[in-house]
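Recall that a protein's primary structure is simply its ordered list of amino acids. Everything else, from secondary elements to tertiary packing, is in principle encoded there. The following example makes that idea concrete.
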Amino acid sequence: MRLGLIGLGRIGAFHARTLAGLDEVESLVVTDAVADTTARIAAEVGAEAAESPAKLLASGVDGVLIAAATNAHPELLLAAVDAGLPVFCEKPIAGDIADAVRLAERIAGRDERVQIGYPRRFDAGYTAARQAVYSGELGWLHTVRATTLDPAPPPPDYLRVSGGIFRDCSVHDFDAIRWVTGREVVEVYATGGNRADAEAGSAADPEAGSREAVNFGRYGDVDTAATTLTLDDGTLALVSNSRFNPRGYDVRLELHGSRDSIAVGLDAGLPLRSVEPGVTFPGGTPHRFFMDRLAGAFRAELAAFTELVAGRRPSPCTVADALAAGWIAEAAARSAAEHRPVRITEVTR
């Protein structure tokens, strides 16, 4: 099949390399807002270069992947749907939840071939955890623990447009919890802290270490967050996120039930050091970044999109799924700002 890829930044270039290695992809057309980037990535992966998204959409592609800047997602997604093409779009579908709702309304009834990028749905561990829940082998769940810890903060340019830690980081945990448990979130209680800002403010040289000196409060954000979710069957889910985990990129999920408990992410690359005498686990090289920890998931995610394009499967992550995770993030942001529990129905109104 012939696929088009719009946006060749960090994740877009990564996708281009992955797509070039998939047997199903016979030809690839790429474009980016920066012409030099388009030419460089096209040459690297043996793809055709398109001057613009419009020309890419008109180049006879069978499906389109959108990895451009978030503020371009709504226009590009709508253009691809209007062209009658299957679409893979990195999350979020829009930078603002209201814009996401409006977009969802505009493409309603035409969105069955739209896939939103939440790669943990394709990670082997998360997939096995979901199967364990659905098989009943865990019994009834009472506690879920989800973790995403970044090795270092993103740059200021990213923080200005990310929407904050709940919307750009925690949201992956929110989606994973919905997908693995099959339950909906009904209430959210969240809090956040800016220890990094306080430490930078008290340092003798506050400019030392550019990433450490990022002022999260300036962007209305926090560097560390904790969220408690109440699911519709009474299960409690605890989500922990931070921008500071210098040992590596830590993504985990625990499920505790009446019959058994399981964990995702307890492999040799777990970026955690045990201080128990005689314990050598984990003994491997710690995962350094999400492209390392989730490389297999990204490949499986794009392979799933080729199956969607070929008509062999439905969308594995729908626009409705993306909105559901987005609403949880909105509730978390409001809860942290107002220091109180927030029902999901309160924000969806």
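The CA atoms of residues 264 and 317 lie 20 Å apart. DSSP finds 13 helices and 13 strands in the chain.
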